[in-house]
Amino acid sequence: MTDPLTDLQVPIVQAPMAGGPSTPALAVAVTRAGGLGMLAAGYKTAQAMAEEIRVVAAHTDRFGVNLFVPEQDPSDPANLAAYAQALAPLAAELGIPAPAVGEYTDDDYPAKLDHLVAHPVPLVSFTFGLPSAADVARLREAGSAVVLNATTAREVTAAAELAPDAIVVQGTEAGGHRATHGQAAEPEDITTTALLTAARELTGIPLVAAGGVARRDDAADLLRRGARAVQVGTLFLTAQEAGTKPAHREALLSAAGGETVVTRAFSGRAARALRNRFTDRMAGAQVKGYPQVHYMTAPLRAASKDDAQGLNLWAGTGFAACRATTAEDVVAQFRGLSAK
Questions:
Q1: φ and ψ at 104, to 5 degrees?
Q2: CA-closest candidate to residue 167, choices 121, 132, 125
Q3: How do residues 55-87 score in pLDDT, each as one tens digit?
Q4: Cβ of 168: how many Cβ atoms within 10 Å?
Q5: How far apart are CA 299 and CA 266, in angstroms?
Q6: Is the overall model pTM greater than 0.85, yes or no?
Q7: Angstrom distance (rounded) from CA 295 to CA 103
Q8: I want to staple 120 with a disulfide (CB 3.0 to 4.6 A). Which of 25, 109, 142, 239 is the partner?
Q9: Which residues pair with 272 in a beta bridge?
């Protein structure tokens, strides 16, 4: 099995966006257009992940699967209880029961790893932390390329010690969850360009630059600075093949003059989203509490599915470039670019 990051026709990796947007159709369309499509295994069972892999593998042998590393920094029970209490008035307004403190879950991580070892895919990436050296070795022996994530120079060094095939360096401009190794850390306010520059001095491992890639010039600059490829997420949220909620999609397409904020209000982990009523209202109450807060707010988000003011509108700083289009058209913007 060859490394799918090698000799990409277009040096674009579709960000794995858990929670719905990253569909098999999106991954296939991106790969067919010359980029690298990714499946997001987060918030799915191992069985559901396996079914999505089966669908994609029927169409292409160049794709990847992203796993959530189980949270290593424990959530404080008192903080979780306080946040549940703070959410209660919103639940009452929506006509649903007050939220209970969410449960800890490992996101079916061991079963997903076992499946990927037994049924290899071209590439496996990890976020929210690092896999063990033993798990990296298992995947490598199975024939998969391994890609790790980092959001700081220190995390780059830690990831490099595992000798992955590539490291995604994610700057502050990125939409959705930061890939910070452990929820306790406050994400560093370091740009994608600055982090890429620092990482390039720390390691010779291929780097994928992520965060704020909204236009061809953004990608060209990062490739000139030494990235093997760039990772694009927000632009794909409004592609036809994405499973983005209609209210989220419309918010991105009509958010002229809007702004993004980094918030823990929806999941307990720092994530960049379009500012809305929920982020404003819960700003003073938010806590570090992943994954429990994610499950605590899930019923509220479900009840608000048609109201963008109550949803986690993940978006990077370049969201204004979003258009109602196809995955192929998104990738086409970056054709002709190559790593230097």
A1: -75, 140
A2: 125
A3: 999 999 999 999 999 999 999 999 999 999 999
A4: 29
A5: 11
A6: yes
A7: 7
A8: 142
A9: 176, 262
| Count of positions (residues) in the chain | 340
Max intra-chain CA distance, the chain: 56
Q: What is the number of H-type helices and E-type strands within the chain?
A: 12, 11
Question: What is the rounded CA–CA span in Å between residue 132 and residue 206?
Answer: 20
pLDDT in tens, 240-254: 999 999 999 999 999
Q: Tokens 């470039």 sit at which residue?
A: 321
**CA atoms of 97 and 103, how far apart (whole Å):** 17
Contacts within 8 Å (CB) and 24+ apart, 19-25: 19/43, 19/312, 20/243, 20/244, 20/245, 21/236, 21/237, 21/242, 21/243, 21/244, 22/242, 22/243, 23/241, 23/242, 23/243, 24/52, 24/55, 24/56, 25/241
- Rounded CA-CA distance 73/95 in Å is 33
Phi/psi at 154 (nearest 5 deg)?
-65, -40
DSSP letter for 5, please.
T
Would you tell me how many other CB atoms lie within 10 Å of the CB of residue 277?
14
Report CA dihedral (74, 195, 19, 87) to the nearest 10 degrees: 50
pLDDT interval class at 1 (50, 70, 90): low
For helices 133-142 and 109-118, the axis angle rounded to 10 degrees is 30
Query: Environment class of residue 54 by beta-carbon count within 10 Å: exposed (0-12), middle (13-18) or buried (19+)?
Result: exposed
Residue 325's φ and ψ, nearest 5 degrees, are -155, -165
Residue 215's alpha-carbon distances to 66, 221, 301, in angstroms, are 24, 10, 31
CA angle, corner 106, sides to 159 and 38, nearest 5?
A: 60
The 10s digit of each residue's pLDDT in 177-220 is 999 999 999 999 999 999 999 999 999 999 999 999 999 999 99
Q: Tell me the pairing of strands 166-170 and 207-210.
A: parallel
Q: Three-state SS for 125?
A: strand
| Distance of alpha carbon 210 from alpha carbon 227, whole angstroms | 10
Q: Kind and range of the H or E element at 37?
A: strand 37-40
